[in-house]
Design goal:
The chain is an alpha+beta fold. Helices cover 25% and strands 31% of the residues. It is built from 18 helices and 40 strands. The longest helix is centred in the middle third of the chain and has 17 residues. It is globular and about 80 Å long.
């Protein structure tokens, strides 16, 4: 594992620091506080009561309910905790209040140090329109467009005609790509403006918009800067952040494979001018857009007045006087305490290459919908050049009230190819069981030929890696799940009455294989897990299924919280799975892919089939249910209105993603939610009663059930599934 290597050379700048954030962000800051011997204070919402950052800190204090507005965005509550715990400084992390002048002002009034820039810098750079005008006065190039306060939709439509399509609609407040809309034809602009204003108002409390020319083959390049209170400003090289999905960064690296040494120096100097233009203090990131077709030309986009999620890649490649490794959180703290930067620009060099991948609780095979769940077991990658920043642990739920990022996996190498190879290996060796994640998708992304060759732009993922077909369950996975169930039944067999209870298939007349229903597929097992003949039966008839020889050995976890390891030998091929169980569900993880497989007994299958008869086919179902826990952000139809098939009825947002629920058929709609409502997974939000002449598929005949030797599941198997345990 890689650790940040810079060691304190002066006394700790503070005695107690409050970290006004959560998850991996808070954990990252707290670890530096621990290394410096600074007492750490964590804050948490009700949803995060058992979160790792709470346990990691020296002191943890409840802020309020799960809602961010009542907890992590509550400035008064945070200042109250700071006073009560004797915190001399507040570190806002990144996200939440990190760029909010209200927190900085409140800290100043309370005599508490805000670990970040001054209010002036926050206000100027927090408004993209003002920021563009400010940096242009310091000879920093900006993207052509229109950026003025108070532009109406009509003003923006008229301006787009002058700028020329394609254009990019951007909220003036906020960041992270939230609310941004790419528009290629004039007819799509009005709807894009409405969507951008709605998202901006909900997320930032400000629906001001502006337009920019959409740069072709865009590369997202950002520069890390540090500035002290004594006029010292340095840059620590650039990061390439072009691998984005819907304007959200996914993979970042340092340095950029696009820039040459001359452009690197020019863009670094421009970033320092941006920081100087507002008297910046602390760690900040200046973001530029570069066309892959003209890599020596760059345009200012915005300045993030805080530490960035992707800062570890800069920490791993930056060397001070030849010694690699800079702790940017430590530098933030020392600058906030009034210390001078301990190095000049000439002391800084870049060594090697680092790449970071963001691990999200989302399902790439279901349109990247947020994934709820409970971390049953966790295996983190290890190895030379590998670092993991995470905010999860075994035994805690996946909290869906906030950002979906669970962890960051970072790899360093002597060159870019070595760093990418180490990252692929690290991701493949990561297992999160109990919730679906994007890890396997990330493995495929960083294995892509274009990514390996550095041929990237900000549209690559949306063009080639967003529309995914579900990866079908393999025979190996079905057999592994059945043999694990077989193993557990043998382990539970009592000493008395073993002849009848053991899963041998023994009968008075003749033995028969034991059958397991794994996700609707029958797997028969004849023998023990050490030596079995198995058949995977995808049709009702048993005859004709191929007989395969299998064995399974199970190794219990090496450490608390880690998954068990199952070695499946199937016809001479050995496959390794990380394993965890939750009631009747078996979780298997391999090469980063974590998959739940449900074992159904006869009673469960019968109940589901009868429910299907009552409900009819899914396509004809009149009910609209939320595919994820989240917040209703829009209801564009009125109750009792008539809708056409495909019309948007409700828009639900969770983890920075909007999901539109559309009418399955033409008919009359009834709505059960309103904007601002919190909804659970699978909660009924609306219903469309079909027109009499609407075409509705007929219910299919339910095939008969087969006889099953699997006994009813124990009480634990009737607990809620991972998808049901997520918070509202």
């Amino acid at each position: 594992m890689i650790a940040v290597t810079s060691a304190p050379v002066t006394p700790a700048p503070f005695r107690t620091v409050l970290v006004a954030n959560r998850g991996e962000i808070a954990c990252r800051v707290i670890r530096t506080l621990q290394r410096l011997g600074i007492r750490s204070v964590a804050v948490y919402s009700d949803a995060d009561r058992d979160a790792p950052h709470v346990a990691l800190a020296d002191v943890a204090v409840r802020l309020g309910p799960a809602s961010a507005r009542e907890s992590y965005l509550n400035v008064d509550a945070i200042l109250d905790v700071a006073r009560r715990t004797g915190a001399e400084a507040v570190h806002p992390g990144y996200g939440f209040l990190s760029e909010n002048p209200a927190l900085a002002e409140a800290c100043e009034r309370a005599g508490i140090v805000f670990v970040g820039p001054g209010v002036h810098a926050l206000e100027v750079m927090g408004d993209k329109i003002t920021a563009k005008h400010a940096v242009a006065e310091h000879d920093v190039p900006t993207i052509p467009g229109i950026a003025e306060p108070g532009l109406s939709d009509d003003d923006l439509v008229a301006a787009a005609e002058r700028i020329g399509f394609p254009v990019l609609v951007k909220p003036s407040a906020g960041g992270g790509g939230k609310g941004m809309q790419s528009v290629h034809v004039a007819a799509d602009l009005p709807e894009a403006l409405r969507a951008a204003r709605r998202v901006a108002a909900a997320a930032f409390g400000d629906d001001t918009l502006f337009l920019e020319r959409l740069v072709t083959s865009p590369r997202h390049i950002e520069v890390q800067v540090l500035a002290d209170r004594h006029g010292g400003i340095v840059h620590l090289g650039e990061r390439e952040c072009s691998l984005q999905r819907r304007h959200q960064k996914v993979v970042e690296e340092a340095p950029s494979p696009l820039l040459d040494a001359v452009t690197r120096e020019r863009i670094g100097e421009a970033a320092c001018r941006v920081a100087a233009s507002v008297g910046y203090v602390g760690a900040g990131t200046v973001e530029f857009l570069v066309s892959a077709d003209a890599p020596d030309e760059f345009f200012f986009m915005e300045m993030n007045t805080r530490l960035q999620v992707e800062h570890p890649v800069t920490e791993l490649v930056t060397a001070v006087r030849g010694v690699r490794g800079v702790d940017l959180v430590e530098q933030q703290l020392r600058i906030a305490a009034g210390e001078r930067l301990p190095f000049a620009q000439t002391d800084l060099t870049l060594q090697g290459h680092a790449v970071e991948a963001r691990v999200y609780a989302e399902d790439p095979e279901r349109g990247f919908l947020p994934a709820a769940g409970h971390v049953l077991a966790l295996r983190e990658p290890r190895g030379e050049g590998v670092r993991v920043d995470n905010g999860i642990a075994a035994g805690i739920p996946i909290v869906t009230d906030y950002d979906p990022m669970l962890a960051k996996v970072i790899a360093w190498g002597e060159d870019r190819q070595e760093a990418l190879a180490r990252l692929r290996g690290a991701l493949s060796g990561t297992s999160i069981l109990g919730a679906v994640s994007n890890i396997a998708w990330l493995v495929g992304l960083v294995s892509d030929d274009d990514v390996i060759a550095g041929r990237m732009d900000t549209t690559l993922i949306d063009r080639r890696f967003s529309d995914l077909e579900p990866v079908p369950v393999t025979e190996q996975e079905l057999v592994a799940a059945a043999l694990l169930a077989h193993h557990d039944r043998w382990a539970e067999t009592p000493a008395v009455g073993a002849l009848w209870a053991a899963p041998t298939g023994w009968r008075l007349d003749r033995a028969r294989p034991v059958r397991y229903d794994v996700d609707g597929v029958t797997v028969t097992v004849d023998g023990s897990t050490e030596d079995a003949v198995v058949r995977v039966v995808r049709e009702p008839a048993i005859e004709g299924a191929e007989a395969r020889h299998a064995s399974l050995s199970l190794r219990e976890p090496d450490a608390a919280g880690e998954p068990a390891v199952a070695l499946l030998d199937l016809d001479g091929e050995t496959i390794r799975y990380d394993v965890a169980r939750e009631g009747s569900t078996v979780w298997l993880a391999r090469n980063g892919r974590s998959r739940p497989l449900r074992l159904r007994d006869r009673a469960t299958r019968l109940a589901e089939r009868l429910a299907a008869v009552d409900r009819g086919t899914l396509a004809a179902h009149p009910e609209l249910r939320s595919p994820m826990p989240g917040t209703v952000v829009a209801v564009p139809v009125e109750a009792g209105a008539r809708v056409e098939a495909g019309d948007t009825v409700v828009v639900v947002e969770a983890m920075k993603m909007e999901h539109r629920l559309v009418a399955p058929v033409a008919g009359t709609v009834s709505v059960h939610v309103a904007p601002g409502d919190l909804v659970r997974l699978d909660q009924l939000v609306a219903r469309v009663d079909a027109d009499e002449d609407a075409s509705i598929p007929s219910t299919t005949e339910v095939p008969p059930l087969q006889a099953d030797a699997t006994p009813a599941q124990p009480a634990a198997a009737r607990e809620k599934s991972p998808q049901e345990t997520g918070p509202a």
